[in-house]
Amino acid sequence: MWEERAYRARREIAALAASGLGVSDLHAEAIRVVGRDVKTELTCWATLDPEALVISMITSGDPRIPVQFEPLLVDAEFSTSEPHSFSAMAKRKEPLARMSDLSMRDHDRSERFQNVWRPLGLDQELRLLFDSDGTSWGAAGLVRAGHDFSARELEYLAAVAPAIATATRIAVRTDIAGRTAGASPAIVILNAQGEPRSATPEARVWEEKLNQCDSGRFAVMMRIMAQGAATSGPGGFHTRMSDGRGDWAVLQASSLVGGEEDGEVAVSIESVRGEQLTSMLLVAYGLSPRESDVCMEVMAGYRTTTIAQHLFVSPNTVQDHLKSAFAKVGVRSRGELVARLQPRPTVPSGK
After folding, report:
1. CATH class as words, domain 2-177
2. pLDDT at 262
3. What is the pLDDT of residue 332?
4. CATH class of 285-341
């Protein structure tokens, strides 16, 4: 029975990916598919930047986690002692993690349990990684009260997770292909808790765009950036983010030295250029490291013989890599390849 359910769910999720949905809409629909078979009180899915392994988008199930608990959930995600954080699971390639499998000591020190789930009357949590061919595209947290997640439910989720990862990878390509000309660069100054102290007018535009996709999402992303800046090194903290409607941004956060209050953080939000998404697209299309190298050389305008010299391979090897890349990306010429991997933003009608 569970095998049939998993098979049906994989088929439905594959159909969703093929329908051209972006990541936000895909995850919203997939949450309903999975929720039909695995019952929860609350569920939250996060899209991960596959290179930085940082949360770049959050989609909540229905009902949504109460808004007052969202900042506490973000804080726990960036705590160095928190078990089963999404980032840690991605780095360890850990596909599933149940809170009930923790030792009593680790369970009691979990900020998620003590500060979020316990006050909400929830005591069972399962975390699931969406990994495809060694690349992590997202993760999910499923929470409920009472009975623990069963072995059959774990088997079901383990069987469905790769399909979700592959669908997310396809949806990322869809989002980037539909990328619009974005808003102007923005600056937000946050206090140590991730609450805005000041912001440029352009930041309000981004706030409206994100909150139209999911109410309260801008505040959650600012909390993520504040926590990331507090735990990162001198180089600061960054991630890429989609508003779920075709606009992508690069967010960079760094601690302010000599700010009015200790722990102040400056966050810049800037629409991405085509080349800033190229590395994500190379991963999203499943290109090998050598195929990616050849594609980067092609995008730089080099001929086959020059690429061969740069990469210390024969021209025939370059052509073999290009043939493979063409097949994976779905193009038939170098010009089409460049256009697909360096998409130009479309200008919304009326502008």
Report:
1. alpha beta
2. 61
3. 93
4. mainly alpha
- Buried b / exposed e over 166-192, threshold 16 CB at 10 Å, is bbbbbbbbbbbeebbebbeebebbbbb
From the list 203, 223, 338, the residue with the least C-alpha distance to 281 is: 338
- Which residues have C-beta within 8 Å of that of residue 339, sequence separation ≥ 6? none
* Six-digit token string for 86: 């999404």
Give the model confidence (pLDDT) of 144-167 as tens digits: 999 999 999 999 999 999 999 999
Rounded to the nearest angstrom, the gap between the alpha carbon of residue 52 and the centroid of all alpha carbons in its chain is: 9
Is residue 281 within 8 A of residue 341, CB to CB? The reply is yes
The pLDDT, as a whole number, for residue 230 is 85
Q: Do domains 186-274 and 285-341 have the same CATH topology?
A: no
Q: Where are the domains of the chain?
A: 2-177, 186-274, 285-341
User: Please, are residues 129 and 93 in contact by the beta-carbon 8 Å criterion?
Assistant: yes
Domain 186-274: which CATH class? alpha beta
Q: Which residues lie closer than 8 Å to 293 by C-beta, 6 or more apart? A: 311, 321
Q: Which residues of the chain have pLDDT under 50?
A: 258-260, 348-351
pLDDT at 243: 76
Tell me the whole-structure pTM to 2 decimals: 0.80
What is the 3 state secondary structure string of the chain?
CHHHHHHHHHHHHHHHHHCCCCHHHHHHHHHHHHHHHCCCCEEEEEEECCCCCCEEEEEECCCCCCHHHHHHHHHHHCCCCCCCCHHHHHHHCCCEEEHHHCCHHHHHHCHHHHHHHCCCCCCEEEEEEEEECCEEEEEEEEEECCCCCCHHHHHHHHHHHHHHHHHHHHHHHHHHHCCECCCCCEEEEECCCCCEEEECHHHHHHHHHHHHHCCCHHHHHHHHHHHHHHHCCCCCEEEEEECCCCCEEEEEEEECCCCCCCCCEEEEEEECCHHHHHHHHHHHCCCCHHHHHHHHHHHCCCCHHHHHHHHCCCHHHHHHHHHHHHHHHCCCCHHHHHHHHCCCCECCCCC
Q: Using the CB atoms, write b or e for 29-59: b if 16+ within 10 Å.
A: bbbebbeebbebbbbbbbbbbbeebbbbbbb
